[in-house]
Amino acid sequence: MKELAAAMRGGRVRAMPPNDADLQRLLHAAAEVRKRAHAPYSGFPVGAAVLAGGRVYAACNVENSSFPLSVCAERNAVGMAVASGARRIDAVAVVGGSARPAPPCGGCRQVIAEFAGAQVPVVYATPAGRRVATTVGALLPSAFGAADLRGADRESTGTRERRPRAASGRARSAARARGSRRTGR
Q1: Quick check: pTM over 0.90?
Q2: Could you give the residue numbers annotated as active site?
Q3: Is 11 inside a domain boundary?
Q4: Distance between CA 84 and CA 22 in Å, rounded?
Q5: Residue 183: inside a domain
Q6: Where are the extended beta strands (E) located within the chain?
Q7: CATH code, domain with 124
Q8: Segments forming the whole domain that contains residue 85
């Protein structure tokens, strides 16, 4: 059993696609963890759960009085899964909002897409149970990913710019190199 779990974490064994029971379990975990959200500024608590390698990782949003430092529930849940060794997400559930289910924000969609394929199910719901079911690909079509970065060097100019080296052979920052060309230092 431990070998199977290790193989799944390493991506050598494909997990079964999530079923309705898995999605219900995720929604329940997201609803429960939402109760512990730290949302004193927005008053908008959110809970999220991701399924990775058969395990559920649930987290809530954590706000900060300096709003850019706040962290969404979805990113916290993905972070928990990754910190536990997961490298692939099999399903996502989010509970938030009241009048309508709150989907993941754009930043969270990008983070989810880093670890989940386009066909991975995403369910988002209100605490009262109204829900929307979709996929990562429907939430973030044409997602930017690792393949885009791998091709960036080749596509830009056809050559890779090399950083100037100091006399000792260490790389110099581009700004420092520009300064030394101007001043001779």
Answers
A1: no
A2: 74
A3: yes
A4: 19
A5: no
A6: 47-52, 55-60, 91-95, 121-125, 131-135
A7: 3.40.140.10
A8: 2-139
